[in-house]
């Protein structure tokens, strides 16, 4: 058992930290920088930030060097997440491209597809989104109803996608559609690399309960894709979607490190918020509730490290990722709910009138409801753990 | 033994429910979010026509002279539809305090206008950085020629926009007095605050030598704290009914959605993770309802266990509402996370009420005191020692 | 809304209370009476107590007067439970006979069966048990595997019953057996009034985790029943079993009233137990935990009263009984678990060395685990509530 | 980064598991319930042969000189099989205290006999009506001709029957000293107490001028409290491993039963009420394990966060064990409620450990102090304010 980082790893951390300090926007680190609020400007800001990252070879460190990555080790990826969380770096607008589409293209894309897309993913020139979920296929991916019908050299695509992050910025979509009726539900699915900039694609925003706009509905009305846009084989998209989803798991580290930071912020809140000149933390019960959260957020981090160790040994992520995802999202939800409770009636303020500027606590509290739903609900994670780790019987309907 | 609402009370509930369904239930709340005060005022007028505002006002003041229990179905229905406005503050806090402790003049002035929905009350209690405890009230009132001059700041005051009057606990010579201030009084500056629960507006109130006649004091100058606490019993009994109504709607939403929404070829309500969670919500709901009925009964009959009964109802109903509102989102999945579906409105209101007019924590202590548990010497009499 | 008792009801209470004070064993009320420990003596003590009750017409007050009951109203039954709990009266050894078999006989028994059994049930001369559960049919009553095969005028019964309360005292058993294979699982079941005193019946004790012996296994090896022992019609036993189970529900009141008493005892415990001369109740957190339990035990009582009101109006018990059962048993479990926690390390004593004599808290804590299992597990109650009150879909396997 | 036990440690676990399976796991515990001390003593000898008792004793005292982490798999396996005996008290409390704070003579006397399993230690701490706090220690020790005379009562002392020695915190001139008393010393009267957890025997100990040489004091006469608290860190790290092992067995029991037992034509593990509950147990188990591994690592490396790490592990592992043991009964249904199945043994042990050698509540305060939260002035340094 050994929690130390190698000298090489520490060197990596230092290099990244220095780069960030030199390249983050002016005022970012001292909190005086204001993000553009208007959507187009915000999108441009994020694209610029990604371009800058890619210029420093910091956009996709796990990618091979020949594609502009760093062939980073898993530990370097972890350190990368830690440092990005530490400075609360701007979100990666091309998250889907960098962490899902790019690696999938390298794995099963044709040489032409690789040539055409990979460089632009890295630079942020082309932002990607992911067309998986549908209104009637949320937890149940195999129930996809969007159809793609062959018409000469074209595929005509009709249907509706939902929960499509970044679609309002995206140039291309990694789209799953049904191309034939298979015996089993997950047969007859095909994956397309769809051009978003065409008349048959309409993007409508979904406004969340926290007032933000992260997701969209994407309506496909005779949208067109070409032979060259099929990735993998026709009707064999299930395998491709699994490959893509496997790449998604690296996001858990960022959540775990964020939780650590959020817990520290909560302690700071309990120290700084006073009523009648008594800080919250002076109440023994507040301290006990904090300790419960301390234990759980530490538990989340240590669980992650333990699974990471296994991953380092066996060389690929395991199903334990479901446990990490379930735990960190549930604890995050609990933490922000407690944060609201602890503030007493003062918690009911919003934006500039909230205790922390821009209602950090309230926004994250509302946002946390999405964390036990998105990326597979907690109930789905539990089924996965039950069936794949514990060997319990399969659920109904599967 | 008859632990149920009367047929008349249930019938009245149906009228209110019908009326609110006719105006599309949460539409009033959603209009208010977008700054439309009009719809809210219209709904108040509509409720007034039904008789909601007259119910518990004595007949001599143009009311119906009915009891606390008659308010139960009304508050439940208002909660179910998240109707914005100062119904609880006016009908369950201001009216009973004025009726019980107000001067004849105050009764004649305010009770008929409450009954006719012309007068609506909010309460300005909290001060910046201070608590709901007695020591938290520091806004100063100085005697000046038969009047009081109010100087200080109140914050997180709800829905001043909708109020004709404000109840203000103030400090006079180290005592707490309860003053009724008209919301357009000179010297009073209202600054809006952004509210987490968009269906309730918030403001900070600056009192700059606001002059209020001593006739506007409810009860004696040193009785404010006691009167307020008596009023809060009535308020919390009403609130617990409101919370029960809101929770009932949540359970209904979750139940309906679980029967319609299919995943893996089955309605999600067939999966025990969803199915049993809705049962848990239902069980909590019915327990909250039992506690709240009983709370209102103790209020009506002035029963000796009214403090612990009412506080128990408020605590449990609040916790139930918070939990159910949160679970409702999880049951709805992604769609429950959107602004479009009502789920989040209930979540936000659940946190609004969590510590409204008193921290949950303080209410624990209040019930504990009432049960005599802080009196270490007093043993509980058991019929037979087990 | 009205919580008052009528004068008649108060009169009833007084009459019963007076009778109990005069007829309970010497020393019972002041806690100096010691129950016989040896099983046969204990059984005899309970039979004697029931005989005494029946002589005062207090054994089965809900029964018709012509059968030795009092035609008691539902409210009188409630008061009866309250008073019995108040004095912690000895358990009814013929609980199954009085509250289940007796009423069922009156409802669907033949005149001969009524003549033969009812009076002896009331006097305690014949103690009954109930042969429902089997090792593979716990929650799933329709899965009964015990068989009864017709052989001339006899039925030959083979199989195994489990969780049979009072079987070690019982003279007769209300037994469910399969007499033919129906299309549906609950067809082809027949109910028998079986003589326990025969060679084909073997009773083996089940020792519980609290060291007590309430339940038994009953092995049926060519046990014999006769035509006259069939109740209802052959192959139509499902209807009979439902009738019997409907009568069982009245036990919930006793649990609710016991919970009230147990809560009071817990407050008394918190007042009287001290460490370093400080009573437990002096800790604010202890008081808060007590308040949570106060609220829930009050809630349990008030829920019961509300459902009772409905029952008084519609004239029969409703499915809400499942909610009462679920809630009171879960709260009881929580209460005793808290009682153990509150006592700190002192809680680990047992019997005469425990804080309350005869380890009242420890025994009840252990016993409480059975309350969310027996009479239908909490999971089964939840399914019933979901399906019959909320209209949610039926579960798998049903 | 390598957050796992080493191959050697995992291999050692397999030896211990194999040995305990050979003696039918909980059979040792069940024999002890029926008063059979022999089986327990044989199992101790067996474990000694495997090397369990030598692991963390320095080589110069006939041990293997390995670290705290090497004890982890052993305690996990002992917990899984509920092996009765004073393993934790001897190996994780007495041995580290003697090694770290004992005199050379004490080390030479005790450490080799612990390694050879000839010496086993219990601890007599609690006094009737008193707490685990410092003020709870009132048993008096008087100086008398180079000895101490002990006068007083200790209670709830575990497994004296199995102990050759007893560690006794005593009061000497208002200071706390830790004394090693041989369990057959004159003046010591042992009265058995009935135990809720039948796999641990309890006794009350009457000390009537029990004479103990001052050589038997661990450290200085005024260092007892500090040494005990240092020893408790080691004990609680070990205990958390024990609890993890016990919980793992529970999860295994529940999981296996849920796959075999059928109701309504399906294994009960197909119903989410059961299925997801086992997942919850599993998740808690793995979290407890992560916390306990880390706790033992901080102990081994004397890391600055060792107090909060170890206390966190103990608190979480205890709560997990209590919850899992209770849920295991519910999952087993009726059969889980019987004496015959092992479920209840785990429930009882879970309550035994709940407040053993320190109330859960006191441990909360200990971790809170260690985290600096009682120091109101000290702000937490955040890299960047959110």
From TrEMBL, chains A, C:
Start and end residues of each Acyl-CoA dehydrogenase/oxidase N-terminal domain: 6-125
SUPFAM superfamilies reported for this sequence: Acyl-CoA dehydrogenase C-terminal domain-like, Acyl-CoA dehydrogenase NM domain-like
Residues in Acyl-CoA dehydrogenase/oxidase C-terminal domain copies: 235-390
Keywords recorded for this protein, A-Z: FAD, Flavoprotein, Oxidoreductase
Cofactor(s) the protein requires to work: FAD
GO MF annotations in UniProt: flavin adenine dinucleotide binding; oxidoreductase activity, acting on the CH-CH group of donors
GO CC annotations, alphabetized: plasma membrane
Source superkingdom: Bacteria
Residue intervals of the Acyl-CoA oxidase/dehydrogenase middle domain: 129-222
Family in the record: Belongs to the acyl-CoA dehydrogenase family.
Protein name: Acyl-CoA dehydrogenase
From TrEMBL, chains B, D:
Domain Acyl-CoA dehydrogenase/oxidase C-terminal: 223-359
UniProt cross-references to Pfam families, sorted A to Z: Acyl-CoA_dh_1, Acyl-CoA_dh_N
Keyword Oxidoreductase: yes
Cofactor: FAD
UniProtKB keywords: FAD, Flavoprotein, Oxidoreductase
Domain Acyl-CoA dehydrogenase/oxidase N-terminal: 6-118
Recorded GO MF terms: acyl-CoA dehydrogenase activity; flavin adenine dinucleotide binding
Family matches, as InterPro entries: Acyl-CoA_Oxase/DH_mid-dom_sf (IPR046373), AcylCo_DH-like_C (IPR036250), AcylCo_DH/oxidase_C (IPR009075), AcylCoA_DH/ox_N (IPR013786), AcylCoA_DH/ox_N_sf (IPR037069), AcylCoA_DH/oxidase_NM_dom_sf (IPR009100)
SUPFAM superfamilies hit by this protein: Acyl-CoA dehydrogenase C-terminal domain-like, Acyl-CoA dehydrogenase NM domain-like
Top-rank lineage group of the source organism: Bacteria
PANTHER family: ACYL-COA DEHYDROGENASE (PTHR43884), ACYL-COA DEHYDROGENASE FADE28 (PTHR43884:SF20)
Family designation: Belongs to the acyl-CoA dehydrogenase family.
Protein name according to UniProt: Acyl-CoA dehydrogenase
Biological source species: Caryophanon tenue
Lineage, highest ranks first: Bacteria, Bacillati, Bacillota, Bacilli, Bacillales
């Amino acid at each position: 058992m050994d929690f130390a980082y190698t000298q090489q790893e520490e060197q990596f951390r230092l290099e990244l930290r220095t780069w960030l300090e030199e390249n983050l926007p002016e005022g970012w680190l001292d909190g005086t920088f204001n993000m553009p609020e208007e959507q187009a400007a915000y999108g441009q800001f994020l694209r610029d930030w990604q371009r800058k990252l890619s210029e420093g070879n910091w956009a996709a460190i796990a990618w091979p060097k020949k594609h502009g990555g760093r062939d980073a080790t898993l530990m370097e990826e972890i350190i990368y997440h830690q440092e990005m969380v530490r400075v609360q770096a701007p979100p990666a607008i091309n998250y889907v491209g960098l962490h899902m589409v790019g690696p999938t293209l390298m794995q099963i894309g044709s040489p032409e597809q690789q040539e055409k897309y990979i460089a632009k993913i890295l630079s942020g020139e082309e932002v990607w989104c992911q067309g998986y979920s549908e209104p009637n296929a949320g937890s149940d991916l195999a129930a996809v109803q969007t159809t793609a019908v062959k018409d000469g050299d074209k595929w005509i695509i009709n249907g509706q996608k939902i929960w499509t992050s970044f679609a309002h910025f995206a140039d291309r979509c990694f789209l799953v559609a049904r191309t034939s009726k298979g015996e089993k539900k997950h047969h007859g699915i095909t994956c397309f690399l769809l051009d978003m900039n065409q008349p048959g694609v309409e993007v409508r925003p979904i406004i969340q309960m926290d007032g933000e706009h992260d997701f969209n509905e994407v309506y496909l009305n005779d949208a067109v894709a070409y032979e060259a846009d099929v990735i993998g084989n026709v009707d064999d998209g299930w395998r491709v979607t699994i490959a893509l989803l496997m790449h998604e798991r690296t996001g858990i580290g960022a959540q775990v490190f964020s939780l650590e930071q959020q817990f520290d912020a909560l302690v700071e809140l309990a120290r700084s918020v006073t009523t009648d000149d008594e800080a919250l933390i002076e109440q023994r019960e507040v301290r006990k509730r904090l300790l419960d959260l301390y234990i759980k957020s530490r538990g989340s981090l240590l669980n992650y490290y333990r699974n990471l160790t296994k991953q380092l040994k066996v060389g690929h992520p395991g199903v334990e990722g479901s446990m990490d995802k379930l735990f960190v999202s549930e604890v995050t939800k609990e933490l922000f709910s407690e944060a609201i409770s602890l503030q007493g009636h003062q918690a009911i303020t919003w934006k500039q009138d909230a205790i922390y500027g821009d209602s950090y606590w309230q926004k994250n509290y509302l946002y946390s409801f999405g964390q036990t739903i998105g990326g597979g609900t907690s109930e789905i994670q539990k089924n996965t753990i039950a069936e794949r780790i514990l060997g319990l019987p399969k659920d109904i309907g599967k | 033994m008859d632990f149920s609402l009367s047929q008349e009370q249930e019938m009245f509930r149906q009228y209110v429910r019908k009326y609110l369904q006719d105006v599309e239930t949460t539409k009033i709340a959603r209009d208010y979010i977008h700054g439309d005060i009009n719809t809210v005022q219209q709904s108040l007028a509509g409720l007034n026509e039904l008789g909601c505002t007259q119910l518990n006002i004595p007949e001599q003041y143009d009311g119906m002279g009915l009891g606390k229990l008659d308010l139960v179905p009304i508050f439940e229905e208002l909660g179910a539809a998240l109707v914005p406005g100062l119904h609880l503050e006016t009908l369950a806090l201001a009216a009973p305090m004025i009726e019980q402790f107000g001067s004849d003049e105050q009764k004649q002035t305010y009770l008929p206008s409450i009954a006719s929905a012309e007068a609506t009350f909010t309460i300005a209690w909290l001060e910046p950085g201070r608590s709901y405890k007695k020591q938290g009230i520091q806004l100063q009132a100085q005697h000046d020629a038969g009047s009081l001059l109010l100087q200080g700041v109140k914050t997180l005051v709800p829905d001043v926009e909708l109020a004709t009057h404000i109840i203000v606990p103030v400090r006079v010579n180290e005592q707490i007095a309860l003053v009724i201030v008209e919301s357009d009084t000179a010297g009073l500056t209202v600054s809006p605050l952004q509210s987490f629960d968009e269906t309730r507006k918030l403001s900070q109130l600056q009192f700059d030598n606001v002059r209020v006649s001593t006739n506007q004091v409810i009860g004696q100058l040193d009785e404010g704290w006691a009167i307020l606490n008596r009023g809060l019993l009535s308020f919390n009994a009403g609130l617990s009914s409101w919370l029960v109504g809101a929770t009932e709607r949540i359970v209904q939403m979750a139940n309906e959605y679980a029967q319609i929404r299919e995943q893996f070829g089955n309605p999600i309500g067939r999966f025990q993770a969803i199915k049993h969670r809705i049962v848990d919500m239902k069980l909590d709901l019915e327990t909250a309802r039992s506690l709240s009925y009983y709370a209102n009964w103790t209020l009506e009959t002035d029963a000796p266990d009214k403090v612990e009964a009412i506080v128990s109802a408020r605590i449990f109903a609040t916790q139930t509402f918070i939990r159910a509102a949160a679970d409702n989102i999880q049951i709805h999945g992604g769609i429950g996370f959107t602004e479009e579906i009502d789920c989040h409105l209930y979540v936000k209101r659940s946190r609004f009420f969590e510590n409204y007019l008193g921290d949950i924590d303080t209410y624990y202590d209040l019930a504990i005191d009432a049960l005599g548990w802080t009196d270490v010497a007093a043993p509980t009499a058991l019929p037979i020692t087990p």
